[in-house]
Specification:
The chain has helices at residues 3-17, 23-35, 40-50, 54-63, 83-87, 90-101, 143-152; strands at residues 75-80, 114-119, 131-133, 136-138. By secondary structure, the protein is of the alpha+beta class. The longest helix is centred in the first third of the chain and has 15 residues, at 3-17. The structure holds FE2/S2 (inorganic) cluster. FE2/S2 (inorganic) cluster binds at residues 80, 82-85, 121-122, 124-125, 128, 130.
Amino acid sequence: MCSEHILEQLKPIVEDWKGKEGNLIMLLHAVQKHFGYVPREVSLQLSRLLEIPLARIYEVITFYNYFKLEPPGKHRISVCLGTACYLKGAPVILEEVKSILSVKEGETTKDGLFHLDVVRCLGCCGLAPVLMVDDKVYGKVSKGQVMEIVSKYGKEG
Ligand code: FES
């Protein structure tokens, strides 16, 4: 992404929020909605346009784990680590996903195919441990099933 192009896309967003209360958070929301994440170049431009230190912007981004610093993957895998899932072995499931995809929580695979997140309760504790890929919920998942599930979305074993 070239910085002029970013600036062009960013200006109307900044104009909308400049001077309003809580504008930095609202701006970051708008940025993430527009780009799908908060690219570093955008944070740099925001820092210049709003005349606030870059460190302040990163403070906000990292405080709210809603904000993403990497482009989202094509498929989002959410592993539930809520209490019910945790007790039924979710940490093992999480380790298996991480090892198959070679990513950590909050990261996207190099091919851009998967983004891995950890969540706290997906509201279907009876199916623990639960894993979700995009909008599809997989319940009572065993370590051995993880590769099978991931492969459905394009990852070859
Ligand atoms: S704790 Fe995992 S679905 Fe509720």
